[in-house]
């Protein structure tokens, strides 16, 4: 067993993995000029293997992915400590440094798995208690009859596949997915497929997925709503539609919509003022900021904050960044990030700094002691 661990603790493995990591960073960085950053991160760094497509439709592995490199580094370091590391006080600096490196790797993994990014788009005077996913979406059926709140039945993107039937006893209807279009070109015109809703006036033609982190696909879905084994009609729904459609079920009116996935917040945020400064004589943004009002009745909070490019708002485990603007400076775009592992990189850097400092000081003291001893011997 120990011999096997020693093989995995080899310094050769360390060098090979470091070279593989540098190659991956180089390839991933170059790929970001050819594809959206989010897609490049997923292919190169948030994967176990990087695959290259061939002209015949097949794919071959070309590089180790970020997850694989991270796991090999952790295994290599662990085996080294179990087999060759000498546990002495004077070597504590190395231990602390390595603990910081491990925490950095684990923190990145936790960020990939648990962090959530979304956006809040606010016009002047608007107030919202939710943010919306940038790329993910959901099909919702809403019962607005509640006195204080709506009842929302949400169907995630993963279930919106052509031919799938969503049958849940908690929902008022069955939803049959007739066809799902990841992206479509939408034009006004008569559409004979849907029999209900705004979609009867819109033609939807399949289109390639858009490229770029600042562009959005117009995802569409044809659905057939079934109640008591009878079809209530067919709808065309799209994330590009501003308003929801309605459907009557047993005398009650429900809303149905394909929208960006929503993340509910424990507070309400209202845009009071948006300020946009430009460089003199140009339209180039110099700085922009949002004056918002935060209302949290559960915590008795009701106060104003300014969110600017270098001054985010941190509240309730989420960070609000000033991400952009639109609509001739009447609309602000806030980036909302929930990252439970946000503190780990800072702790890791502190540990690495402390370890390096301790290691340097102990070696410096040892060096000075040896030098003093030699000087004493020479004088004698």
Secondary structure layout plus pairing:
Elements: H1 2-8, H2 11-31, H3 37-45, E1 49-53, E2 59-64, H4 66-83, H5 92-114, E3 116-123, E4 127-143, E5 151-156, E6 165-166, E7 174-181, E8 184-188, E9 202-206, E10 220-227, E11 230-238, E12 245-249, E13 252-278, E14 285-296, E15 301-308, E16 313-315, E17 318-326, E18 331-338, H6 344-379
Helix pairs in contact: 1-4, 2-3, 2-4, 4-5, 5-6
Can you describe this structure?
It is a single chain. By secondary structure, the chain is of the alpha+beta class. The chain folds into 3 domains: 139 residues, no CATH class; 86 residues, no CATH class; 129 residues, no CATH class. It contains 6 helices and 18 strands. The strands form 4 sheets. Strands 3, 4, 5, 12, 13, 14, 15, 16, 17 and 18 form a 10-stranded antiparallel sheet that branches. A 4-stranded antiparallel sheet has the order 6-7-10-11, with no helix packed on it. Helix 2 packs antiparallel against helix 3 and helix 4 packs antiparallel against helix 5. The longest helix is centred in the last third of the chain and has 36 residues. The mean pLDDT is 90.
């Amino acid at each position: 067993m120990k011999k096997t661990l020693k093989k995995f603790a080899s310094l050769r493995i360390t060098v090979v993995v470091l070279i593989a990591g540098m190659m991956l960073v180089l390839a991933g960085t170059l790929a970001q000029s050819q594809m959206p950053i989010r897609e490049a991160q997923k292919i190169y760094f948030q994967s176990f293997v990087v695959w290259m497509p061939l002209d015949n439709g097949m794919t071959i592995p070309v590089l180790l992915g970020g997850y694989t490199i991270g796991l090999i580094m952790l295994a290599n370091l662990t085996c080294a400590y179990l087999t060759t590391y000498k546990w002495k006080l004077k070597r504590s600096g190395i231990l602390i440094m390595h603990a910081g490196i491990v925490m950095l790797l684990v923190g990145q993994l936790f960020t990939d798995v648990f962090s959530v990014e979304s956006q809040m788009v606010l016009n002047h005077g608007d107030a919202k208690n939710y943010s919306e996913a940038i790329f993910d979406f959901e099909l919702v059926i809403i019962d607005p009859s509640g006195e204080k709140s709506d009842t929302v039945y949400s169907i995630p993107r993963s279930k919106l596949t052509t031919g799938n039937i969503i049958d849940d006893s908690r929902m008022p209807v069955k939803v049959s997915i007739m066809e799902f279009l990841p992206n479509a070109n939408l034009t006004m015109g008569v559409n004979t497929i849907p029999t209900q809703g705004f979609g009867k006036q819109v033609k939807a033609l399949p289109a390639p997925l858009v490229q770029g982190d600042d562009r959005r696909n117009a995802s569409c879905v044809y659905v057939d709503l079934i109640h008591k084994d009878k079809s209530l009609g067919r709808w065309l729904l799209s994330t590009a539609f501003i308003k929801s459609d309605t459907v009557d079920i047993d005398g009650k009116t429900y809303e149905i919509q394909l929208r960006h996935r929503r993340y509910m917040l424990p507070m309400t945020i209202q845009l009071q003022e948006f300020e946009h400064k430009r460089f003199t004589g140009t339209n180039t943004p110099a700085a922009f900021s949002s004056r918002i009002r935060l209302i949290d009745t559960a915590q008795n909070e009701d106060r104003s904050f300014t969110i600017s490019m270098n001054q985010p708002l941190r509240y309730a485990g989420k960070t609000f960044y000033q991400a952009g603007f639109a609509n001739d400076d009447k609309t602000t775009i806030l980036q909302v990030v929930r990252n439970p592992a946000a503190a780990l990189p800072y702790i890791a850097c502190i540990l690495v700094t402390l370890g390096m400092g301790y290691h340097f000081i102990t070696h410096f003291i040892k060096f000075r002691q040896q030098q003093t001893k030699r000087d004493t011997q020479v004088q004698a």
